[in-house]
Design a protein that fits this description.
By secondary structure, the chain is α+β, with helices and mostly antiparallel strands. The protein has helices spanning 22-28, 77-89, 99-112, 118-124, 135-148, and strands at residues 2-7, 10-15, 47-50, 53-56, 69-71. The protein has five helices and five strands; from the N terminus they run ββαβββαααα. The chain has a five-stranded mixed beta sheet, with helices on one face. Bound molecules: FE2/S2 (inorganic) cluster (2 copies). Residues 36-39, 41-46, 56, 58 line the site of one FE2/S2 (inorganic) cluster (FES).
Length: 150
């Protein structure tokens, strides 16, 4: 079957199987920033934005996104590079496997909550796990990045 989406601002059509998850579709069509970390809805590295909301692409059937807007890191490269600089400065950037999903979540947080409290920041990114860096450095980087955008 075929679905039509807006991917990173451009109309695209994808050939999919009825039981295919969006993660598989995106990787099949070369959106390799979208990672598979657990295939079980627990790690957050497969996060993409669907109509602006962060979602786990490993748990969304591709057929469900027909007609929707999908954003991956490939569509937000400049902003993600900017966010990455803050991660580098705080020593929060280790293997980098979690970075793309987390960057999309930070992008959505910034759009959705103006002046978030520390608790709101932590709650928003709670689904993006990192096995290397610990969360304190990441939290400091996110906070500094959000403050610099005001
Ligand atoms: S691969 Fe989707 S949450 Fe881990
Ligand atoms: S930096 Fe390695 S998983 Fe987060």
């Amino acid at each position: 079957m075929k679905i039509a989406v807006i991917l990173n601002g451009h109309p695209r059509s994808f050939e999919i199987k009825p039981n295919e998850y969006l993660l598989e579709t995106l990787r099949k069509y070369n959106m390799t920033s979208v990672k598979n970390g657990c295939d079980g809805s627990t790690c957050g590295v497969c996060t993409v934005l669907i109509d602006g909301k962060p979602m786990l692409s490993c748990s969304v059937l591709a057929a469900r996104v027909d007609g929707k807007e999908i954003t991956t890191v490939e569509g937000l490269q400049e902003e993600v590079d900017h966010i990455s600089n803050y991660f580098g400065d705080e020593g929060a950037d280790q293997c980098g496997f979690c970075n793309t999903g987390l960057a999309l979540t930070i992008h959505a947080l910034q759009k959705e909550i103006k002046n978030p409290t520390d608790e709101q920041i932590k709650d928003y990114v709670v689904g993006n796990l990192c096995r290397c860096s610990g969360y304190h450095a990441q939290f400091k980087a996110i906070k500094r990045y959000l403050e610099a955008q005001k």
